[in-house]
Design brief:
The chain is α/β, with parallel strands linked by helices. The chain folds into 2 domains: 9-109, Orthogonal Bundle (Arc Repressor Mutant, subunit A), CATH 1.10.10.10; 132-407, Alpha/Beta hydrolase fold, catalytic domain (Rossmann fold, 3-Layer(aba) Sandwich), CATH 3.40.50.1820. Helices cover 35% and strands 18% of the residues. α7 packs antiparallel against α11 (323-334) and α9 crosses α10. The two termini are 34 Å apart. 41% of the residues are buried.
Amino acid sequence: MNSLKSCGVYEFGPFRLDVKERRLLRGERGVPLTGKAFDTLCFLVGRHGSLVPKEELLNALWPETSVEENNIDRNISTLRKALGEKSASPRYIETVPRVGYRFVAGVTEVCVAESAIDMPRGQQPESPNRQEIRFCVSPDHVRIAYAKVGSGFPIVKVANCFNHLAFEWQSPIWHHWVRDLASENSIVRYDGRGNGLSEWNVENMSFDAWLQDLETVVDAAGLEKFALMGQSQGGAVAIAYAVKHPERVSHLILCGAYSRGANFRGRPEAAEVRRALETLVQLNWGKSNPSFFQLVTNLYIPENTSEEEQSWFKELQLISVSNVNLVRFMRGCDEIDVRALLPLVRVPTIVFHSEKDRIAPPEEGRILAAEIAGAKFVPLSSGNHILVAAEPAWEVFRSELAAFLQNSGPASASTS
């Protein structure tokens, strides 16, 4: 959602707004913004000099949802803080009381090849400054979005829930996974069917379809041999692929993964809780009860997280998947059962699992490590299903993964 077109790169004051890459820069430093605040900025910059009524902003930002005006006020407050507006400093956003807002700063459109960011001569960026997003089509004619970034031996990250290639590029929830891993490797990520930038209107949301999507992406990316990373339910897809195509997988990396969905864990009470959660999602309970998104956030990232990270994750829940597709996705996860495949895995494997994971019970991680021959198990002192950058467990994950990739067999690959 935004009204910006053409080059998609705009400058005002000391800032550069790159719409396609969803980033705001002040000089060479990124300015973090949550999704709706970023979209608000895009809309106002696209209409710079013109008065934008509040009603128009509401309809543009939340086209299918009825929300209070204070949501816009909160976004404007966030933007003013991010832009450093004070009474004595240059103003960017003018408020017309009871009517709307106007972006009053001068705006220049800049055409930069592939939205690359200029760096001082001889200086290399600490992390990749752009990603290439492309599309491929599965055998059942579903459009799948995938992205490549970095250079070196490839790691393919299997899609899981709450993925959005464009939105997560600057998100503190996922960006460090790309930034840190792409410092030594090339990373291929993709949005699964019904999720993110991939096609949402799909009939088949089954485990076999998820496996087929992975096969489609690695072929489209031209990969012959690569390390395969599966997080959460993506771990089961990665296991199935490694068993089916062992000649193409150099290393198997499982993070917060499981081989059995909720319906096969022998815990009826947990399965009932899961079904209750699915019912709330199906009823779109978060639409009238925003605290529901906080509940889900607390299940995924309950520890060592900032208010900004929690806000990003709540926004990711809204932008990455519809409530209809999320229910189908959750039910597909409940039916996962690849435990019989574990003894058939023949590639070097490492299993990471947070000791207090609320999404994938720690016992599931221990099952993976015990039943995959030779697998290394790394327990993580965390309650987060998705590790955040600031927690100590992330550094443990990085160092253990680097050693695993270096010491567990040759890391050679051919790409086209």
